[in-house]
Amino acid sequence: MLPTRRGSFRLFHFAGIDVFLHYSWLLVAVYGIQQRQGHYTTMIWPVLEYLALFVIVLMHEFGHALACRQVGGQASEIVLWPLGGVAYVSPPQRPGATLWSIAAGPLVNVVLFPILSVAWYVSNSAGWEASMPNAYHFIEAVWWIDLGLLIFNILPVYPLDGGQILRSLLWFFLGRARSLMVAASIGFVGVAALAVVAFMLRDLWAGVIVAFIGYNCWQGFQQARMLTKLAQLPRRKAFACPSCKQAPIIGPLWVCHKCQTRFDTFETLATCPGCGEHFPATTCPECGQARPLMQWESPARPF
Hints:
The protein has about 300 residues and is α+β, with helices and mostly antiparallel strands. It has three domains: about 1-155, no CATH class; about 155-230; about 235-303, no CATH class. Helix content is about 55%, strand content about 10%. The protein contains nine helices and eight strands. The chain has helices at about 25-35, 45-70, 95-125, 130, 135-155, 160-175, 175-200, 205-230, 265-270, and strands at about 10-15, 15-20, 75-80, 85-90, 255, 260-265, 280-285, 290. The protein has a four-stranded mixed β-sheet. The chain has a two-stranded antiparallel sheet with strand order 5-6. Strands 7-8 form a two-stranded antiparallel ribbon. It is elongated and about 80 Å long.
C-alpha cells in the first residue's frame, strides 16, 4: 500500500522526474511546526526546520531514482507524503541493479552527514549556542534529522531500504523468490520490535508508521510466495527477457488489446491468433519491461 498521485498535486519536474506532494503532508507539517516552535524564539526557524526535512527526504528519493536510471531502469515519479517519500523505481530485475537503486538513497544521507557535522562543529566552536541560539539549534536539529532518517532507513526491516538492501544481497545467493521470502520473514521480527517500541513510547504516530511497514512487509511476503510458484512453472529455455534475463513461462499469458484473445506470443511470433494483430514489443510478465520479440533471442538459439 504505497502512496499514489491520488490526493497529491504536482510540485515540479526535474531531470525527467515528476515530484508530487500529498495534501495531508501540509496538515502534518503544521502540526510538526507547532510542536517545534518552543525550541526557537521566532516561528521562522521551525518552518525552516521542516523545510530542511522536506529537502533531505526529497534528496534521498532522488538518490533512488537517479541510481535506478543509471543501471538502465525506469524512474519518473516521486510522491512525498506524511510517512516519508516514495520514489517509484523499476530497476532491471537483477540483484546488482536493484541493490544500487536501493542503496543510493541512504548514501545521500551518508554524504550529508559529514557536511552537517562540520557545520555543527563550526557553530559550536564559534559560540553560536549563546550568541545565535536559533541558528545553532537549527543546525543541531538538521543534523539529527539526517542521522535519524539514515538509521531508520537502514534497519533490516522490509520494505525499508535496509530490508530491501538485505534482500538484494541475499538475491545473489538465494535467487529472487527465496531472498524476498527471507527478507520479509526477518522484516516481521523487526516490525514486532518496532511495535513494542511504539507501545512503550505511547506514540500514536509511531504506531501508524509501524502498521504501514507491517502491511507492506506482508505484501512482500505474499509476493515472494507468488514468485516461488512462478519459478516452478515450465519455461522456454530458448528465450530470455532482455531486461530481467528470465526465461518466459510457457502458456497464454498475453492478451490481445483488440479482440481479447489470450495467446502465447512465443508460439505465434508476437501475432494474435484471433485477429492477426502483430505486436512490435513483447511485455515480460515478471518485470513488466516491453522489448521487441527479436531481442528475446537466446544466444544458444538463433531466432
